[in-house]
Structure prediction request, 373 residues.
Amino acid sequence: MSLSLILPRWYDLHAHFRQDDLIAPLVQAHLSMGCCGILAMPNTSPPVAKIFDTDSLPYTSLESYRRQLQDAANGLLETIIVPLYLTAQTTPQMIAAGAHTGLLKACKYYPPHGTTGAMHGAPLELFIQNGVLRAMEEHNVILCVHGEAHDLAAEKYFDEKTNAEDLFYREMLPPVLDAFPRLKIVAEHITTRTAAEFVARGPDTLAASITPQHLLYTVGHLLKGLRYHLYCLPLPKFSDDRAALQEAVLDKSNQKFFAGTDSAPHAQKTTDCGCAAGCFTGGIAPQLYAQAFEEAGCNLEDPAQQKIFAAFLCENGPTFYGLPVAQKTFQLRKEPQNIHTLKIGSHEIVPLPLGMRADMNAQRATLPWQVHL
Ligand code: NCD
Ligand code: ZN
Prediction:
């Protein structure tokens, strides 16, 4: 008999579902991997940067984006959180009104021009000064941060001793924690030892999500053979950074680090002008997380270590967001699974493990684990 884990259904607390005809198949991929809840990123075009349909700003409303996701899920997702994209037009009044109706649970800080769809972001200082973070703190709205400093010279963006994420957690986030001690903050998709240690040592109001790719890979995996399907932001870092992430999730008392895949489909990854950032892991994330835990030295046959995995995948995230741990379960079985590209209309989306293959003619890749619902 192969090893099998029965786990509570889990929440993906950071994923991209795009828009229009892409939404339904992408939500289905999440349902197929045992998700009971999602936090759906607002970097659509236009971004989800107003709350109500009736607001006059030229953005997508949180109300309508949530409705579209709900329709796509056909009632099968218990929780859909859409964080409001923070822009220069966001006001404390919008935060208060959104929180009062129960629609607004979180807001997303994007470093201006820092990643896909981040051109509407505004500097963090603006939200410190204009009352937006204060209103979020008062109304228990969680701040999700893409933690990278912006506008950096290339030499500072990614260098031996410093990079954009490192600078963000050393210099930009500490003043926010000092000024707003009750504001709950999620350091999303962290990739560095600096961030992992900052979160571990920080107050209970601070937690972090970690993607499968940042637990599995380093920048060397991206560069060796230029496996551009691994190109995502923040970039995978060095082996010591990956070790810090692995230590954080394998700690038996871990309550601060949790799953958030950052699954980010791109039908076209490369052009002559560069590479779209984002790894697609819809449908396969628990499998990849289990693989990553094993590669980091976790023995998933041991019930005590299974508990550590379950805390990371299924418990810590919902608990931080004030959501119930799911009663319903799903099964992860240690049996090989073949995966293929996801075809949506004329789009073809390559899941990360297929993008990591060395033989470009191979039509499939194999995962060591399978999900059964
Ligand atoms: C995301 C995307 O494609 O929307 N890309 C990524 O590399 N993670 C944007 C983001 O979350 O940074
Ligand atoms: Zn993302």
